[in-house]
Amino acid sequence: MDTPAPDIWDLWQDGAHEPALNMALDEALLATAATRARPLLRFYAWDRPAVTIGYVQRHAAAPAGFAVVRRLTGGGVVYHDHDLTYTVVVPEGHWLTGLDRLHSYRWINRSVQAGLESCRLAAALAADDIPGHVDRLTMVCFQNATRYDVLLAGRKIAGSAQRRTRDGLLHQGSLHFGGPLPIPRAQLNAALCAAFVSTLNLTLLPVVPGAEVTTLAERLVAERYATAAWNERR
C-alpha cells in the first residue's frame, strides 16, 4: 500500500466509564467530527465487566452476568473485561471516508497489526469473510473472523465495526486475547499509537474534548444508551 500524505489526528487517552457513557461518547464524537475537522483516535476502558452487542443483534445474544449496551455500529457480541478498546472518528471529506468499508478496515487494522508486531506478537490480517451460515444476529465477534480482522496464531484477537453518517465515519475496535492482556496495557497502548503514526503517516496531538462532546454524551446516555428501548429493541 502507498503511504498516505502527512496528516494530523487528535489523540484522546480517555479513562474508564460506565458502558452506556462509553458508547454515548463515541456517538457524540461522530456528531461533532465536522467541528474538529480532523480525525480523532480514542483509547478508553470500562468501569465494570460488560458486553456490547451490534446494532442489529438480538438482545438475547448477550450473556448473563454482564452489563449490556447496544452499539451504534454493527458486528457481534464483544466482551469488555480484559480487552483494550479504541475508537477512530473521521470527519466526512477525509480520504478514509472516501474508501469503501473493507479498504478503510484494511488501513486501520494494518495499524493495529503493526503495533502488535512491534510488541513481538506475530499478527496477520484475515483473508476471508465470515461464512454465510453464521447467524449475525447472535454471533460472538471474536469467534468469527472476517476479512482484515487481526489474527494471532490463526485466532482472531482484534475486531472492529463501523457506522457511516453524513458527519463521517465511526470505527469501534477491540483487542481481546481470551484472557488478561499478554503485555502491560500502557505498553500496548503506546505501541498502537506509534503504529498508527507510522502506518498512516500521522502526527498525534493529545486532546480532551470539551463541553460540546460531554454534554451531548450525557444526553445520549439518558435518551438512548441507558434505556431498555435502545438496548432491548430487538
- In the residues, how many domains can be counted? 1
The low-confidence runs, each spanning 5 or more residues with pLDDT under 50, are 130-137
Measured between the Cα atoms of the first and last residue, the distance is 40 Å
Secondary-structure content class: alpha/beta
Contiguous helical run count:
6
As for the CATH topology, it is: BirA Bifunctional Protein, domain 2
Task: Tell me what you see in this structure.
With 234 residues, the protein is an alpha/beta fold. It has a single domain, classed as BirA Bifunctional Protein, domain 2, CATH 3.30.930. Helix content is 30%, strand content 29%. It has 6 helices and 11 strands. The chain has an 8-stranded mixed beta sheet, with helices on both faces. It has a 3-stranded mixed beta sheet with strand order 4-3-5, covered by helices on one side. The radius of gyration is 17 Å and the shape is globular. The relative contact order is 0.23. About 3% of the residues have low confidence.
Keywords:
single chain; 234 residues; alpha/beta; BirA Bifunctional Protein, domain 2; 8-stranded mixed β-sheet; 3-stranded mixed β-sheet; 6 helices; 11 strands; 30% helix; globular
Write the layout of secondary structure elements.
Layout: E1 7-17, H1 19-31, H2 33-36, E2 40-46, E3 50-53, E4 67-70, E5 78-80, E6 84-91, H3 101-118, E7 123-125, E8 150-152, E9 155-165, E10 168-175, H4 185-200, E11 202-206, H5 211-225, H6 228-231
Parallel strand pairs: 1-2, 1-11, 3-4
Antiparallel strand pairs: 2-6, 3-5, 6-10, 7-8, 8-9, 9-10
Helix pairs in contact: 1-5, 3-4
